[in-house]
C-alpha cells in the first residue's frame, strides 16, 4: 500500500464513520434534553393540577423569571397565556400590543402600578422562590409544591 492509497483509505474511513458519530451524538443530546424537560416532577405535578382545575377559557400569566422553563405550558395544557417573550409578532401594531402585554405582565409580578383590569387573565404561575406578597392582595393561592405556586384572580 503506497502513501496515496493509505490517504484515500483514511478519507473513506472518515466519510463512513462520521455520520455514525454525528447521529449517535445527536441522539444522546436529545435524550438529555428530553430527560431535563420531561422528568421534572414538580413541573408535571403543577401541569396536572392546572389541567384538572382550569378550563380552556382560562388565561394564564407565567412569571417572566420562569417563562423559559415553562415554555410548553400552552402546548401541554391547551390553555392560552396572555403573552410570552418567545412569540414576537411581525406587524407594527402587533409588536406594540405585544410590548404592552409584556409590560403589563411585569407590573403584575413586580407590584408596581398593578392594574389587573387592563388585560384579562385568571391564573398566575410563579416560582416558589419568588416574592409573591403583592399578588396575595388580589389573588388566591390555589396550589403550591416545592418549585411552583399557582394563584387564581
From TrEMBL:
Its EC number is 3.4.21.107. One of its GO terms (molecular function) is peptidase activity. The keyword Cell inner membrane does not apply. Residues 45-103 form the DUF6798 domain. Keywords: Hydrolase, Membrane, Protease, Transmembrane, Transmembrane helix. It holds the Pfam family DUF6798. The chain crosses the membrane at residues 12-30. It is an enzyme of class 3 (hydrolase). GO terms for biological process: proteolysis. It comes from the Bacteria. InterPro entries: DUF6798. This is Serine protease Do protein. It comes from Candidatus Micropelagius thuwalensis. The lineage of its organism: Bacteria, Pseudomonadati, Pseudomonadota, Alphaproteobacteria, PS1 clade.
